[in-house]
């Protein structure tokens, strides 16, 4: 199956464990520092590739050293990066994440070139040629909020392409803009905070039902340590998280999306696909960064047994 991931591309620099930022010129010795491809498109693309999918990633990055490194990481993981456009006037989006001993992850973030992505970056016929398209972070790549892009999605879905969507931020204004994509999406996978902000419902089940009414045929609300909730017209099901030792939650949402999409690609129903997403997220949670511990689909599915 061919999957196109389209949207936010970020380079993450992570360190753990970090109990605090030292004053002055102080130094903290940590156990581990990693650099990973992240963001709701790039992080998901790497996870999808490791799960055995053919992946094409589309987005905007800077024509800089950060962009070179991001491309190298994605290529090394088997992602086709020819859909990435390089911007000379904007830097590659990047984050520095000092991971606390309890797995918490404050961040220092530069939005960068993600804000410049438009429908013009999407090659003619690319979406319609894909089996699945994942919109990763259209809330921060708001240049895609364009009738021309919605026409591309409509054409692709008319030819049988399945469209999934995940978000990146919890900012009210950005989430309001992202709601415009909902009529053009088959499966929407927000986290609990995003679903509540978009609907005004703190109860995730009520939020999921409200989101279903806006167009998707499935809404999957991820609930962190409480698992996830899968809502369709047939009803609502809750899935527990898997009991693993959590090191870092960075990229768990992207990993969940990758597992869910892989399940769809293998012809599984949405509930079983959500179980695959749960196992992929649990795998990533056991290490540092958005691709931690993720080797292949066989190892991920072993967690379900």
Automatic annotation (TrEMBL):
Keyword Cell cycle included in the entry's annotation: no
Molecular function in Gene Ontology: kinase activity
Any one Gene Ontology cellular component term annotated for this protein: cytosol
InterPro entries linked: PfkB_dom, Ribo/fructo_kinase, Ribokinase-like
UniProt superkingdom: Bacteria
BP-aspect Gene Ontology terms: phosphate-containing compound metabolic process
Keywords annotated in UniProt: Kinase, Transferase
Domain Carbohydrate kinase PfkB: 16-295
Protein's UniProt keywords contain RNA-binding: no
Protein name: PfkB family carbohydrate kinase
Record organism: Actinomadura livida
